Amino acid sequence: MHLKGLGVSPGIGIGRALVLKRATRELRFRVPESLVKRELERFDDARARSRDQIQHIKARIADSAGTEHAYLFDAQLLMLDDAMLVDRTASIIRQERLNAESALQRALEQISAFFEQAEDAYLRERKGDVADVVGRIVMNLRAAGDPADLFKGLEGPLVLVADEITPSVIAQLDWSRLAALVTDVGSWTYHTAILARSIRVPAVAGLHNASAVILPGANVAVDGATGEVIVDPDDSTLARIATQRRRREAYEQSLDEYRGLAAVTEDGVAIRLEANVEAPGDAARALERGAEGIGLFRSEFLLASGGQAALTEESQYAAYRQLIESAGGSRVTVRTFDVSEPQLRIEHAGVEGARAPLGLRGIRLSLALDEIFQAQLRALLRAAVHGPLRIMFPFVSGVDELRDAKAAVARAAESVRARGVDVPSVPVGVMIEVPSAALTADLLAEEADFFSIGTNDLIQYCLAVDRTDDRVSRLYEPLHPAILRTIRLVARAGRRRRIPVAVCGEMAADPVLMTLLVGLGLTEFSMAAGSIPVAKRVLRDLRASDARTIANRSLRAKTPADVEKALTQFLAPQEKR
Ligand code: PEP
Ligand code: MG
C-alpha cells in the first residue's frame, strides 16, 4: 500500500507501526512474543480494578436508591468475567499479539456486531453495557503506569502513526526508537513537524487516514522528503529505498564541510545564521552544525516535556542556564511561552491542546497570568548572568503589549535585584508574526531592541490560512506579494531604527526563499540546525547584489506564481554557472 502526504521532515525511516488515535485516545501496537504475558497480566489487573470499582458503585446505588436499582451492576460484574469478552480478548492478545487496549477494543467490535444482529431488543440494548464495561477496563489499563513505558519492550525501530499528535507526547517518548512519524493532519509548520525536524526524525503529515488504514505492527517505510509512505514494502521497493537513503546520506555528508565555514555571500555580505531549538540540551549540537547562536528557543516546549514542575522559577532557571551554558558564549534568544490558556494554568501545565489561534495566547496570556510571567522573567534574568541572553515576546500585536511586557521585565528585574542578585541588561525584542505588528513595525522599532519575523504565523494571519490544515496548504503561500511587501516593511523599519531584524520562521530554512529574504535586506536567520549547512552553501554561492535584483523583480510581480517564475528564471542560469 502506497500513501502520499506532505514530507515535513526529510530522511528515510523504516519500522513497525505503532498506531496512536488521539481522537479516541487509543494506542495500538503489536507486542513481541516475550511481552504477551505482560499484556495478559495488565488485562487481568485492569479487570480486577474494574471489579472493585463496580462493586463499590453497586453498594452506593443500593444504599441510596435501593437494591432493585443495583441489578444493572450485577450484569456488568458478570460481563467482566464473561468468556465472550475475556477469552476473546486474551486470544487476540495471544494470537495477534496486540496490546491489551487494542485487543479489548477489537473484541468489543466483534461482540457489538453480534449484539446488533440479535432479534431480541433487550439483547441489542446490552451492547451499551458491554461498551461501558470495556470503557472502564480501558480506563484502568491507561491509569496503570506511563504509556511511554509500554514502548520500552517493543522490538526494533518504530514508526509512530497518529491521527494527530502534540509535541508534548513526542517529548515523552524515547526518540532513539522512532524511525519515523506519520500523521493524518498537519503541514510543514505544524509544531510537531517542527519538532520532528529538530530531533531529526523523518516525518510525513497530512495523510488524512493513515491511522485508520495502517495496522499496528505493519512494516512501514517513510520518506520524509517526498511524503511517500509505503506499507509492507516488497524487496525491490526496500532496495530502492536503501539506495535513496545512501544517496541522501552522501549528500548530507557532502554538506559537512560547510558547517565550520562562515556564512558570507560571494560579494562579502556577512549573514548571521542561528538555530531554532526546542530543548536546552540541543544547543550544543546546533552550534556543532554551524549555528552562530540560538535565534529561537521555544520555551513552551519545557512545559511539553516537564509538565507542571516546569513552570517554577527554579526549574526554568536551571533549564535556561543549561541552554545558555551549552551555547558556550554565543547569543541565545528565548521566546517567552507561546501557548494557549489550559497549557499555562498551573493546574493544567503540560496538558495537550493546540494554541487557540486567535484567543488568549502568547504575550496576551503571559500578561494576563502575571504570576507565571514573573516567574519566567525572573528565571530568565537570573540565567542571563551565565551568557548573552535576549528575551523575545511572541504574538505581540502592538506597542501597548510591548510596553506592558517591558514593564513586567522591569518588575522582575527589581525583584531579582532585591534578593541581592545581579541582573545584567538583557535586550528585549518582539516577534513580528501578527499583521498589526508588521504594519506598526516603525512604532515598535522605537521601543524594541530587536525584531524576529515569525513567518509561520505571519503568513497564516496575513493570508487567513490555517497553517496546520493541510487542506488549505495550497493557499499557504510564502511568495504571495502581500508577504513580500510585509517583510520588506518590517526590514525597513528595523533598518531605520538600527535594530537587528531576523527571520525565524520556516521560510528562512528554504534556500530559495532565503535568497529572496537576503534580497529584501535581511541578514539574520534562525532555522532548524539541520538546515544550516545547506544554507551556508547557498549563501556562499550567492551574490547579495543579485539577490536584491531578484527581490526587486519579485516585488513587482502580481501573483505568487509570477514571483515563483521570476525566481526560477533567476536561479536557473545561476545554477549552471
Ligand atoms: C513563527 O510563527 O514563525 C514562529 C517561528 O513561531 P511558531 O512556529 O512557534 O509559532
Ligand atoms: Mg509563531
Descriptive account of the structure:
By secondary structure, the protein is an alpha/beta fold. Helices cover 51% and strands 14% of the residues. The strands form 2 sheets. Strands 1, 2, 3, 4, 5, 6, 7, 8 and 9 form a 9-stranded mixed sheet that branches. Helix 1 (36-65) packs across helix 5 and helix 2 crosses helix 5. The structure holds phosphoenolpyruvate (PEP) and magnesium ion.
Short description:
With 577 residues, the chain is an alpha/beta fold. The strands form 2 sheets. Strands 1, 2, 3, 4, 5, 6, 7, 8 and 9 form a 9-stranded mixed sheet that branches.
Number of helices: 25
Shape: globular
Gyration radius, in Å = 27 Å
Q: What compounds are bound to the protein?
A: phosphoenolpyruvate, magnesium ion
Oligomerization state of this entry? single chain
Task: Give the helix level as a range of percent.
Answer: 40-55%
Helix and strand content put the structural class at: alpha/beta
Mean pLDDT: 89
Detail the poorly predicted runs: none
In terms of DSSP E residues, the strand content is 5-15%
Tally the beta strands: 17
Distance between the termini: 42 Å
Largest sheet: 9 strands, mixed
What is this structure's SSE topology?
Layout: E1 2-4, E2 6-9, E3 12-21, E4 26-28, H1 36-65, H2 71-81, H3 83-96, H4 100-117, H5 121-143, H6 147-150, E5 158-162, H7 167-172, E6 178-183, H8 191-198, E7 203-205, H9 210-213, E8 219-223, E9 228-231, H10 235-255, E10 272-277, H11 283-288, E11 294-298, H12 301-306, H13 313-326, E12 332-335, H14 341-344, H15 362-368, H16 370-383, E13 389-393, H17 399-418, E14 428-432, H18 435-439, H19 441-447, E15 450-453, H20 455-463, H21 481-497, E16 501-503, H22 511-519, E17 524-528, H23 532-540, H24 544-556, H25 560-576
Parallel strand pairs: 3-5, 5-6, 6-7, 10-11, 10-17, 11-12, 12-13, 13-14, 14-15, 15-16, 16-17
Antiparallel strand pairs: 1-9, 2-7, 3-4, 3-8, 8-9
Helix pairs in contact: 1-2, 1-5, 2-5, 3-4, 4-5, 13-16, 16-17, 19-21, 22-24, 24-25
Bound molecules: phosphoenolpyruvate and magnesium ion.
